[in-house]
Amino acid sequence: MGVRLMVVDDHRLLAEALASALKLRGHRVLAAAAPAAGAAELVISRAPEVCLLGTATPAEPGMFDPVVKIKRERPQVAVVVLGPVPSPRGIAAAFASGASGYVRHDERIEGVERAIMKARAGEAAVAPQLLQGAFSELLNPAAQPDDEGQRLLQMLTPREVEVLVRVADGEDTRLIAAGMGIAPSTARTHVQRVLMKLGVGSRLEAAALAARTGLLDRAERPVAAYANDVETPTGPESPPAQ
C-alpha cells in the first residue's frame, strides 16, 4: 500500500526527482518543495503520513526547528531527514527534534522507501550504527566544535596561533623559525608553550586537536596581522619568561 508523503529539500531538482521516483513505486507524493519559512506550515496543513526533509548541514543549530514545529502540531506525521554523510551530532540533533529517521542523500531509492515504511510503522528508520552513535551523543554530549575551538584560541597569543598553524601544516622548527623571522630556539620555545597550553604532549596531538575543534579554521589570518610583532634572529636572545 502506498504512503502519503511530502518531499522537502534545499535542491528543488533533487526533491522533484525523488518525488517522481516514489510516485512510480506507487506512493502518493503530496508536494515537492524547497524549504522556506512556510515549509513547516505546508507540512502541517497537508498532514502527510511521512515527510522527507532534506538538509545539507544537519549539525547546524536550529536546522531541525521545522521538525520540532511539525511534531508539535502534527505528532502523527513521521519525519525522515535526508542529509549528507552524518556525524553523531547531526543524527542526535535530528532525533532530539522528533525525527523518525535519517537517510543519506546518496541512498538508493530502495533504501529511501524502506525508511519511509519503517517511519510510518513507528520504527526508527536509521542504520543501527548511526543510531548507536546518536544515542551516545545524546547521553554524553560533547562541546560544540566551534565553542571548544574558540576557548582554545583565546588561550594562545597571536604569535602562538601562527606557530600552531605552521605546526599543523607540518613545518619543523627550522621552517617555523625561517617563516616567522625568529631564531630556532625561540621557535622551539613557542612550540613548547603551545603544547603546554593545549594540554598535549606532541606536535601531532596539537595538530589533531586544532583540526578536531575547528581551531584551525578560526586561526587563519594574514601575515600582516603580525607586522608589529616580528622578532629578528640577530643578536642575543632573552630567555623565555617563566
TrEMBL record:
UniProt entry tagged with the keyword Transcription: yes
Sequence ranges assigned to domain Response regulatory in this UniProt record: 4-120
PROSITE patterns noted in UniProt: HTH_LUXR_2 (PS50043), RESPONSE_REGULATORY (PS50110)
HTH luxR-type domain span: 149-214
Annotated keywords: DNA-binding, Transcription, Transcription regulation
The keyword Transit peptide belongs to this UniProt entry's keyword annotation: no
Pfam families in alphabetical order: GerE
Protein name per UniProt: LuxR C-terminal-related transcriptional regulator
